């Protein structure tokens, strides 16, 4: 209804439907239809119309003076918001997983804030799923399936999940790699309290297996699982993005090249019905490019 009121106010100010249509960049037929719809809703005639001119009726005068300040305030606010959304200067609030941000995304955050200092990044990190509505965040980075229809989402990438251990640990086991689940059961295993079983796929046969590990140590944080694995205390199942630096530095190695667990998909989310600001669009684009470049899906 506000759009109809806005059209009515501009018709009165411009003195005709054609001039109002030109000002609002609307087809004249649309302007006429909206005026008629408002008159039907209010159950009164607001304007006396001729071929080239419109004049307010007595009731139209009353409604015009009641609405004109409201329309002016709305358009002023709309203009300010459009300017803010179109500008790179301003605040951008993002929710993101703590471990993912401290590890794999750390160089991305440093590069983004250094390259775009005019974007006031407010990054809230947590390994728990934060409420985007209550936190009033512009967007969130999430890992794993996202089923909430209240949010728009875009897939950024996917990370495979590897069985890993330190080279020193495997030397002590007198083994180069693990080929069977029976071998895996003989190893000291480190895991998280979040996963009681491992869904493993044997790549050559494509067969899936549910493996229930008996953990020597368990943590509610994957970083500590990684720390103990790097220290040579056991084997672990970890997503590549958690251990990508350790793999490159040979602190960890993939010990079961023929086995993989379920991949972890990375998403960016934002509230449905909200247009992303230029700042948020930039961050989303840069994230997509960074993940595509730095997160190979499988290189053993």
Count of individual beta strands: 13
- SSE run: HHHEEHEHHEHEEHHEEEEHEHEEH
- CATH topology of the largest domain, anyone? D-Maltodextrin-Binding Protein, domain 2
Number of helices: 12
Characterize the biggest β-sheet: 11 strands, mixed
Helix content: 40-55%
Summing up helix and strand content along with how strands pair, one would put the structural category as: alpha/beta
Name of the CATH class of the largest domain? Alpha Beta
Q: Stretches where pLDDT falls below 50 for ≥5 residues?
A: none
Q: What characteristic shape results from the CA principal axes?
A: elongated
Quote the distance from N terminus to C terminus.
60 Å
How would you concisely characterize the structure shown here?
By secondary structure, the protein is α/β, with parallel strands linked by helices. 43% of the residues lie in helices and 26% in strands.
Explain this structure:
- Residues 1-57 form the HTH lysR-type domain.
- This is HTH lysR-type domain-containing protein.
- Keywords: DNA-binding, Transcription, Transcription regulation.
- This protein is α/β, with parallel strands linked by helices and 300 residues long.
- The protein has 3 domains: 2-86, Winged helix-like DNA-binding domain superfamily/Winged helix DNA-binding domain (Arc Repressor Mutant, subunit A); 90-158 and 265-294, Periplasmic binding protein-like II (D-Maltodextrin-Binding Protein, domain 2, 3-Layer(aba) Sandwich); 160-264, D-Maltodextrin-Binding Protein, domain 2.
- Helix content is 43%, strand content 26%.
- It has helices at residues 2-14, 17-24, 28-42, 58-86, 98-102, 106-115, 132-135, 167-172, 181-185, 222-230, 240-248, 278-294, and strands at residues 47-49, 54-56, 90-96, 119-125, 139-143, 151-165, 189-192, 198-202, 207-211, 215-219, 235-239, 253-254, 259-271.
- The strands form 2 sheets. Strands 3, 4, 5, 6, 7, 8, 9, 10, 11, 12 and 13 form an 11-stranded mixed β-sheet that branches.
- It is elongated.
- It starts with a helix and ends in a 6-residue tail after the last helix.
- The mean pLDDT is 89.
